Amino acid sequence: CFMSLSSPFSGLQVVAAWASVPFPALPGCSLADTLCAYQQDVPWKLLSSWREQKVNCCFAQSVVLRGIGKESSSSQHPAQQPQSALHSCGSTEQVLQHYLHSLFPGALSTAHVLQQPCSTLPPYPQFFSPLLTREGFLQDRPPSHPSAAVESVPVLAALQSSPVLQGLLRSLHRDLQKLNVRRWFSFFSAGVEQDNFQEALEELRTLSQCYEAGLGADESEDEADSD
Description:
The protein is of the alpha+beta class. The protein folds into two domains: 16-161, no CATH class; 166-211. 27% of the residues lie in helices and 16% in strands. The protein contains six helices and eight strands; from the N terminus they run E-E-H-E-E-H-E-E-E-E-H-H-H-H. It has helices spanning 31-36, 92-103, 164-177, 185-189, 194-208, 217-226, and strands at 2-4, 14-20, 45-46, 60-66, 108-114, 118-119, 152-153, 155-161. Strands 1, 2, 3, 4, 5 and 8 form a six-stranded mixed beta sheet that branches. The radius of gyration is 22 Å and the shape is globular. This is MSTO1 protein.
């Protein structure tokens, strides 16, 4: 899933959507405790059907976390030595902001934390793991007596401009090239000309090149060969 928007970076007009539903928070643990377990990779997944890819860098991102209260910013006693830089932050929003800056140094990052979780009451489908509590927090093992349905879950959502978008846009470009638009009479009856369609395809390919930074040589060669 990706969308177009205006951007302060020249040529960067698209973001990819990522999410974690539910966000993998443990009951009684702080946000710093949870994020310390994800120092090498982010705890959210790309919402596109395109192949999974680890994000090593990004240009800009906006992240919103719901369902984590202010009291979850730190679980340690004030007199204790901070376990990590994340534990030294004074609020959940600062914890999330510090985490984003540590994983993606130099990127433009904004972080927002809302205490209200996402409701999962009926008719929301109950497809959750038995490890979840009614409030959507993870447990180490399933309860001996299953509780009621999950009523709410903490959720993290992110919009990110990163090199992952090069592969997504080039894949879309390849799929559109395979279409024989001359057979779609309704397509051109709406006022679209063949030349305009080809021009839009070329613009899509050019746009994908704006996200080339951060890709390894092997990745670039694989994409070029597939074209």
